[in-house]
Amino acid sequence: MEMVEISKSLSKAEQRIAIKSHKTLSQILDHVHSPMTEIEIEETKEKLQIPSSALTLLNEILKAMSQGKPISIVPVATEVTTQKAAEILGCSRPHLVKLLESGELDFFKVGKHRRIKFEDVVNYKQKIKAEQKRRLVEMMHNDEELGGYDS
Length: 151
Known about the structure:
Layout: E1 4-6, H1 12-29, E2 36-41, E3 46-51, H2 52-66, E4 71-73, E5 79-81, H3 82-89, H4 93-101, E6 108-110, E7 113-117, H5 118-145
Antiparallel strand pairs: 1-4, 2-3, 5-7, 6-7
């Protein structure tokens, strides 16, 4: 499975539908307790059996859409190119290559090309965000101790 992205901005009508659908599906999911669920497509009257976990995922997608957020669905075992990893991290490809070569991020080679596990990129991004937050809090505490903030 390849990465699926919904990155275009939603229209107001799509966002309203997502809000309503998310609310309704959330209420339905409170009553779903079996691992499989049957749904019916109204237009075709076809019934499908799907895992209940797929409905939970759909609910998360609707929640993000209702907030106007772009969405990416990526299989956990997916590997990404250095360019895609750099885009995810918000850095340049040369900077990412330095991170790889310094051992900050694991990678493997397919021929001459470097590949990184998507999961490793996401974990690294979370680690960096947590470190940034920790440093900001530390700076705020230092400013408070020096009287940088008025009470």
